Every structure is written in structure tokens, then in C-alpha cells.
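If it is no trouble, can you show me the amino acids of a protein and the C-alpha cells describing how it folds?
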Amino acid sequence: MCEVFAGQDPARYRAVNRSVRIAGHSTSIQLEAAFWVLIDEIAASQSLSTSRFLSTLYDEALEINGSVSNFASLLRTSCLIYLMSKAENPSERPHFHIIAAE
């Protein structure tokens, strides 16, 4: 039963660090490679660079929630929301309202 999961390419769950600038500060985010693939896809679906998408998402989460206690977890769950949206509407491109700060 678990062969689909257990037999996956280890490169998919390899930890990848990316340096990004969020809220005017340089930081490093570590996620599994498969999540970075999805984050790049989500950013492209919003016509944003990945860096811009991450910064915008952080700013919006900060505005809505007052703080962002675990940004890496926010990114992982955002990927799940994205995939769930795609599964519910396979013929439509998932659309998420991102307010791009200028």
C-alpha cells in the first residue's frame, strides 16, 4: 500500500535552502524540494517571481494575522491548499487573490 509513497525519488524530499528577502530582511527558508516545485508553480500562476510571491504572502499573512510564527509551515499548507483547489477544479487554473504591493 505505501509503495507509492515509500518508493518515491529521495530527491523529492531532500531539504533545499533558498535565500530570500522578506520584509526587507534577507533570510533562508528550508523546505523539501517537492514544495519548492509547487511554490514556483503557484508564483508563476500569479504572474509573480517566487521571491515576490513569498514576500507578498508573508506581508499579507502578517496583515491578516498580526504575526507569522512559522513561515515554512505556512508555505507547506499553502501548497496543500493549492493542490486541493486543483483537485476540486481540474479544468480550471487555481486562482488565489494576491495583493501585489508596489
About this structure: The chain has a mean pLDDT of 89. The chain has four helices and two strands. The helical segments are 3-6, 33-45, 50-65, 71-88. Strands lie at 15-22, 25-32.
